[in-house]
Amino acid sequence: MWIVFACGSALFAGLTAVLAKAGIRQIDSTLATALRVPVVLAAAVAMVLLRGSQSQIASIDAATLGWLVASGLATGASWLCYFKALQLGEASRVAPIDKLSTVLTVLLAIVLLGEPLTALGGTGVVLMVVGTLLMLERADDARTLPGRRASPGWLAHALGSAVFAALTAILGKLGIVGVESSLGTAIRTAVVLVMAWAMVAVSGRWRPLGALPRRELALVLASGLTTGASWLCFYRALQDGPASVIVPIDKLGILVTVAFSVLVLRERLGRRYLGGLVMLVAGTLAMAL
C-alpha cells in the first residue's frame, strides 16, 4: 500500500510546481510561500482530526519532536529556495535540479539510516545525475525561446532546494517513527508556517491580499492544496516503506511537471532535454527497484 501513497505523492508534487509557477509571476515568491502554508496546514490538521490522532501529541518524546521540527525547518528552507527558483527560471528547468535531492537522499539514507544500495540502485544514481545535466543544456532550443531566458540566480536557488529537500526526507524519516503520519505532517507544517511568515516580516514583503492578482492568488492557494495532498501521501508512505525507494518514486512527479510545463506554460523542450528526461526517469526507476 505504501507504493500507492508514494505514487500519489508524485502526482500532487508534479501539479504543485506548475500551479506555483503560474501563480508567482507577479506575487513575490517568499510571500507566495507564506500564503500557501496555511492551506497545507489546514489539510494536515483536517486529516489529524479525521483520524483522531491529536491525542498522541502528549506522548511524543523530545527527541522525536526535535527531528520533526528540524525537518520542518529544512522544508521551509527548501520551499523558499524552490519557489524563488521557479520565479526566476522555467519550471521544466528547475524541476530536474530539484530532483537531485533524490541522489542526496539515497546517499544520506545509506550513511545515516543504514539502508542498502544495490548495483542497480547505484546505476540509477549515475543515470539521474547524467540525465539532469543533459536537461540543463539549452543549446538545442535557445533559438526558439527569445525573451524567455531564465533570470540569473535560479540555478543556485534550485540547488539549495535540492539540498534542503534531501535533509527534509531524512529528518522526516527519523521523526515519523512512532508518530501517526498526518500528525507528524501537521507538526512539521506548523514549523514551516512560523518560518515562512518570519521571513516575510523580516524581508518586508507583505502585501494586502486585495492588492494581489486574484488569478495568481488562487493558483498559489491551489498549489498549497496539492502540496498538502502530496505531503500526506509521502509521509504515510515513509511510515511503512524505505526512504531510499519512496523518494525516487515521489520524484517521478517530474513527468507531471514537464507535461504541464509544455501544455499549460508553453515551455519548449529540445531533443537533448528529452534524452536527459528519459535517463532521469530510468535512473529513478532503477533506484526504486
From TrEMBL:
Species of the source: Actinomyces marmotae
Annotated ranges, domain EamA: 1-136, 156-287
Family, as annotated: Belongs to the EamA transporter family.
Gene3D superfamilies (alphabetical): 1.10.3730.20
Keyword vocabulary terms for this entry: Membrane, Transmembrane, Transmembrane helix
Any single GO CC term annotated in Swiss-Prot or TrEMBL for this entry: membrane
Coiled-coil ranges (or none): none
InterPro entries named in the record: EamA_dom, EmrE-like
Transmembrane segments: 30-50, 62-86, 106-134, 154-179, 185-206, 218-238, 244-265
Protein name (record): EamA family transporter
